[in-house]
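User: Fold this; tokens only.

Assistant: Input:
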Amino acid sequence: MDASQNATPQVAAINELTKRFVAHQRALGLSDARFAARYERYLGSHKTWIKLKDCTWVGHVNESRILDKLKKFAEQLDGARSFDADDYITNLPYVWQMNAQFERLLASPLDIRGLISLAPQGVGKSWWASKLLGDEKESKYFYLRLLHSHRERSYQVACAIMEKLGGSRTANPGDMMNSLIQHAKALGEFVLILDEAHNGGIVLFKLLKDLIDETSMRFVYLGFPTEFDVIVRRSSSASGESRQTLRRCLQPICDEFRDGVTALDVEMYLAGQGFDRNRELRNVATEIQPFIAARYNLTTLASAVRDARKQADDEEGKLTLGMVTGALQALCSTASSRRAMLQQMADQRDGGTSAGHGPKGGAK
């Protein structure tokens, strides 16, 4: 059916948005296939995008669902959303923990200034921070992702913090720290969220010590556990520097997820993608968790869900857990790793479905 004929307000809105995205595609110089692949979260499959462009999508696509996706796409292009929250799952155990610990930090006396969270890639550190910043309206939270080029370079780290707080770097490196302290004092109480914080090395701990001694700043340190361990244990002087900062942080350090996501994370993520929380979902989550945790955690799972959703869209069918596990197998780069995944899943089935369900000590 031609969606341009006798269009309802909802159909008309979809067609108008599609015209805008066609212009955006033209400006980018992308083919239909590449454009659909880049924005599959909003557009679905290549086939769906063609139907939208040709106004032949009626009867093939759910109107309410596609309109909601296209509106989000428009918001993203307009820069109205600082955080792309389409896949954000508030019920993830890591998110529960970080929300609770962050509230503890804000309510702590002034001698406690820091929150340290250690977890590998893909558990949700950057995700959580981006959502927190997206919800904050008073601009008292500042986010900085440290780079490898910052490591053990105190001037570069200080400049990066200064610029993120809205100040300017000094020409003389010797004046940088004093300028940073004075600028931070003028801001009053604020929170600095440091992502990939391990890239700051031990010099970051020194800078944080001075800042929390001289200003009203609180901070969140998000880093990799193995890198953090190397930094604080590298030498007696480094250990002493880190201890002076760590004693001003919430205890214990949040490292329950240092081994990656748990089966409960996998279950809650998939539930957030529309699957019912039942025995089948729990069994699948337990079976695939070791494979996911051994790779890139939720990043791997999200890729598999996107591939499975595209398959369902192409087949004009319903997304199933079988499609997700099939997509996970396809993500394995070699036949041997695919066999290893199948063996892991078989071992999990043979050993029961309760193991690995929740972080160390159980999910709170």
